Amino acid sequence: DAKTTQPPSMDCAEGRAANLPCNHSTISGNEYVYWYRQIHSQGPQYIIHGLKNNETNEMASLIITEDRKSSTLILPHATLRDTAVYYCIVRVAGGANNLFFGTGTRLTVIP
Amino acid sequence: NAGVTQTPKFQVLKTGQSMTLQCAQDMNHEYMSWYRQDPGMGLRLIHYSVGAGITDQGEVPNGYNVSRSTTEDFPLRLLSAAPSQTSVYFCASSSYGLAGDPQGTQYFGPGTRLLVL
Asked: What letter would DSSP give residue B19?
């Protein structure tokens, strides 16, 4: 069963910020929000994750609303190499570590 | 480190044939898993293992067998291939959120593309 809802596709101009939304209204208190991306049928690549605080790393920023029912992945300066399918996943950290993928958002960065 | 490696990259089978998809990781990860991805779909979990000698079923296990005799290797066996098993297969591994690893980040292999005629 899908735990997250994402728009099927988005466009972003090269050099601009890409903001990818995700709804996870049934998230539990011990579930993290993870983001992965898949570039052209390669294996998925981890981007970032968070519990309730905003997070930033060298790839992206993750903004989680105070009620934790939604989040936004931000790619600050999108490049053509960021064209990919982005998956938002909620899961409990550790344990069996199974990921349940939806269909994600296909981001196209336009020159 | 090579990370997660998968062989073969491509394979064509006839209906009823059997084969083994190989997966190996050199990161000493306890957790390994197999996913399949059909066109236009997200990944679906087939089987997973939380350590050597321990395996369990995922979302779509029918038609597949796994075993985990070593930490490094997690082969996926197709017992009698069917056209419905035409897909891209990804192997992944992770630790259990040890110090320095963000809550068990999963690392994926490059995939095996399987066509069953």
From this structure: E
pLDDT higher for B100 or B69?
B69
Cβ of A42 within 8 Å of Cβ of B102? The answer is no
Higher-pLDDT residue of B25, A52: B25
Which chain A residue has the Cα nearest residue B40? A103
Please indicate if any CB of chain A lies within 8 Å of the CB of B111: yes
The reply to whether residue B56 touches residue A32, judged by beta carbons under 8 angstroms, is: no
Is B35:B92 a contact under the CB 8 Å cutoff?
yes
Q: Cα(A73)–Cα(B14) distance, rounded to whole angstroms?
A: 43
Q: What is the pLDDT of residues A63-83, one digit of tens each?
A: 999 999 999 999 999 999 999
Cα angle B11-B14-B15, degrees, rounded to a multiple of 5: 125
